[in-house]
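Incident review: delayed structure delivery

Summary: a single-chain prediction request sat in the queue longer than the usual turnaround. Root cause was a stuck worker, restarted by the on-call engineer. No data loss occurred. The affected request and its eventual output are reproduced below so the record is complete for anyone auditing the incident later.

Affected input:
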Amino acid sequence: MKHLIWLASYPKSGNTWFRILLDSILLHEGGPVDINRVKTASLKIIERQQFDEFLEFDSGELTMQETQSFKRKYYLEYGHKATESTFIKTHEANITVDDHERLIPEQVTKLCIYIVRNPLDIVCSLANHYIVSTDEAIKIMGDSSYTFFRHEKGITSNIPEMIGDWSMHVNSWLNTGKLPVILIKYEDLLSKPIQTLGMVMQKLDQPVSDLILQRAVNNHSFEKLAHQESKHGFREKVVASYAFFRKGKADSWKEELTQGQISRMIESHHQVMNNLGYSTHINKQ
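Output delivered after worker restart:
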């Protein structure tokens, strides 16, 4: 049996919000969720301690290529040991690692839920999240070698995650051919949340009433999530960042990006943007 369900996205595309909504729907019948106690899609799988226990040696000295190779084996064993549907949140690109095999093993994967967001909005959110300029965020989104938890920054408590550039990331998940993938647009979660969440629950073979879905959406608006964060903090926020739950709106880039910044983003990502239905014919003049 295949039990792993991947919640995948490029960073700042709505993965955390979606994970909170799922937790509310699956475990609380749409009731409110403590953002610091979300159980659905635990992040423990990327903790170095668990990885090292699997390897039976210290992973700190591995190269990035070696890490990715062992990580595929780790995911494979994790999936074989699973006895029920298990959600895993990831920002990793589904890159090729060994003998033309992808990082995410299809042998144990039940479903991949890939969340995509207009990259013009991601830029603004990413800049806020990492406390960098918008221009620096544009560079990050175009960096094919971009990696979380790099070795150069010292051995971290999490395993390095290869992110890559935005276009590469999207293509790595949507064009694999072997994995069962459903695509969710962040914008659809905002504009038609009940329809979008209902479709996901059907794909998960766990249909629920629209009442429960509406309750989950009402209890986890960005305003309410931001209020929770301001009152109790949020463990996944970068310490120096002003806030993790910032605006949660579509098209905020129209007020935040210059024409030059828009043009650079479109030049780098126009093909994938067009494939996903995001307009590349933009002129703010």
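Verification: The domain at 4-276 is CATH 3.40.50.300 (Rossmann fold).
Action items: add queue-age alerting; document worker restart procedure.
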